DNA sequence: TATTGTTATACTCTATAACTATA
DNA sequence: TATAGTTATAGAGTATAACAATA
């Protein structure tokens, strides 16, 4: 494994770096892709302080008005308590409202405000533009296949069992 | 966009959650996949306190003995200063050594210790096993295609330009 | 002056555990 | 007892900026 340890001591040229096992690992490539995507998203989606997660929350609440925090937590793969701080941020920016659910006074029904919907309308084309850049080297067919393959990776892991939630990347 | 706001107020059933735009977005699916992968990696790769990043660093140093910290930083997409703390951790565990480079006394040549190589040998089959689980629903052909497509996503974004480094996911 | 590594620092994201109020 | 949300807290991971040693 790796270069033998009796090799010459000349410093490694930058372009001589090798990656060992890593390029074989889909997990590794996925990680690189996600880092690149996250950076591109944050740079190119104009409105400051919108991350992919916050955008996802806006989309979900818009698509499911009245949804509960626990449902949101499950949908975006966060702990309930993490959702609280995400919503605190969005509510402070008047993008989201928590409305005490009349049928169950423990729960909050989540709704976008008018400003939240407006922001979502502004962001969506920017996100689609980012997405277009993402797949700039893929044919329509390849894009569809990538979606399918990624979906199957997730499904393959989730079937395994209920995992605990180590602090994610 | 979303459900009309004059709909009945019955609480959303859990299985009625919809995802709006999100399933169309490759960026979103990639994120879900990466979260699932990270969790599976941490649960299933036995040696405690080895994350995908730390494993990647071990592989890279093994494949490029004598490499410099700056080269490592570029290879794993971290800032120089972040590499310092990663290496501090690995050096404290006696897995990696920094050896003052004789030809350039500013730089450190990085090497795995015997223990580091041994750990890498222990981990590698576990990582491959994790990887196998990852692609359990993919044919060999599909696996190869997924690797290719992910590589092209990264390449497509990186050509754009030198991005600053917002704190990543 | 530029480069390499380091330090000091701060920020973001996230989870855990214990708590409140409802059910 | 169980569930929904909250709080307090802690930890991991990362970047920025200023610095020392070396080139």
Give the strand content of chain A: 5-15%
Number of domains of chain A: 1
Task: Tell me the name of the CATH class of chain A.
Answer: Mainly Alpha
Q: What is the tally of helical segments of chain A? A: 6
Shape of chain A: elongated
Our measurement of the CA-to-CA distance between the termini of chain A, rounded to an integer number of angstroms, reads 28 Å
Unreliably modeled segments of chain A: 2-9, 161-169
Q: Specify the CATH homologous superfamily of chain A.
A: Winged helix-like DNA-binding domain superfamily/Winged helix DNA-binding domain
> Which structural class should the secondary elements of chain A be placed in?
mainly alpha
What order do the SSEs of chain A take from the amino end to the carboxyl end, as H and E?
A: HHHHEEHH
Fraction in helix of chain A = 40-55%
Q: What gyration radius of chain A follows from the Cα positions, in whole Å?
A: 21 Å
- CATH topology-level name of chain A: Arc Repressor Mutant, subunit A
Strand order of the biggest β-sheet of chain A: 1-2
Largest interface, C-beta closer than 8 angstroms, per-chain residues? A-B, 95 and 95 residues
The number of E-state strands of chain A comes to 2
Give the name of the CATH architecture of chain A.
Orthogonal Bundle
Largest sheet of chain A: 2 strands, antiparallel
Average of per-residue pLDDT values of chain A: 87
How would you describe the oligomerization state of the chains in this entry? Answer: homodimer
């Amino acid at each position: 494994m790796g270069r033998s340890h009796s090799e010459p001591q000349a410093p490694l040229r930058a372009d001589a770096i090798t990656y060992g096992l890593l390029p074989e690992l889909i997990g590794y490539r996925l990680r690189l892709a996600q880092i690149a995507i996250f950076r591109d998203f944050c740079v190119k989606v104009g409105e400051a302080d919108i991350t992919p997660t916050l955008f996802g929350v806006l989309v979900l609440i818009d698509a499911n008005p009245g949804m509960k925090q626990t449902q949101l937590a499950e949908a975006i793969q966060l702990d309930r308590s993490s959702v609280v701080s995400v919503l605190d941020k969005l509510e402070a920016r008047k993008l989201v409202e928590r409305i005490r659910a009349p049928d169950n006074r423990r729960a909050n029904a989540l709704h976008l405000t008018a400003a939240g919907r407006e922001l979502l309308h502004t962001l969506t084309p920017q996100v689609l533009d980012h997405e277009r850049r993402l797949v700039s080297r893929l044919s329509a067919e390849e894009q569809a296949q990538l979606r399918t393959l990624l979906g199957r990776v997730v499904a393959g892991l989730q079937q395994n069992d209920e995992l605990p939630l180590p602090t994610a990347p």
